Amino acid sequence: xxxxxxxxxxxxxxxxxxxxxxxxxxxxxxxxxxxxxxxxxxxxxxxxxxxxxxxxxxxxxxxxxxxxxxxxxxxxxxxxxxxxxxxxxxxxxxxxxxxxxxxxxxxxxxxxxxxxxxxxxxxxxxxxxxxxxxxxxxxxxxxxxxxxxxxxxxxxxxxxxxxxxxxxxxxxxxxxxxxxxxxxxxxxxxxxxxxxxxxxxxxxxxxxxxxxxxxxxxxxxxxxxxxxxxxxxxxxxxxxxxxxxxxxxxxxxxx
Length: 255
Hints:
Helix 7 runs antiparallel to helix 8 (165-195). The chain has helices spanning 7-37, 43-46, 52-85, 89-100, 103-113, 123-148, 152-160, 165-195, 207-218, 221-254. The chain has one domain: MetI-like fold (Orthogonal Bundle). It has ten helices and no strands. By secondary structure, the chain is an all-alpha fold. Residues 58-243 form the ABC transmembrane type-1 domain. InterPro entries: ArtM/GltK/GlnP/TcyL/YhdX-like (IPR043429), MetI-like (IPR000515), MetI-like_sf (IPR035906). Pfam families: BPD_transp_1. It is a multi-pass membrane protein.
């Protein structure tokens, strides 16, 4: 799709990367200096985060985050698969609309609008359902791209053997499409995991909600949210690394 970058372009990218790294390092150093001048780096302020009770509380929130993310992922993938396999005006319109509507707005609808019509779900589902409705549109695009990436000859070969169209899709096209789109599915899981932080809106005890409660309890707002951000960073970097490994493995298999 594009030519390999030449020596001049690689040098330009190198120097842009160096300058960007220096600017980022300068911003980090400035932030640390500000924290130090305000006493935010004093060891006494960080000592509570070396104790197991604090980590147990935060990891409990992380577990709730993972549970919500897994439930959302299952529902969103099922919905996305149905949307992708039944392309029509409605499914296309749904995918376009849901990809543009903010997830927070859907959460507010679930929290304030539906109860006025007698639909009052538990806190867990007030978070999971809006996220699933939103991410189903993104998964539909991924599934559609995965199906389109399969050689049309594979479908034609299955049909020529007398297999029904549905069986060809399930047993011939989808298994190959899944291998193509697995890295994208993992990458989408990173976005989904971050969106579970909206659980604080419905008072679902996920990681960010527990961090807010802990910060209100011990008065260490900056330290608490730095630790919470670090936990999110570790988990999402692990998922991103998995996606890169899967993509590399798929590229080696394609050769």
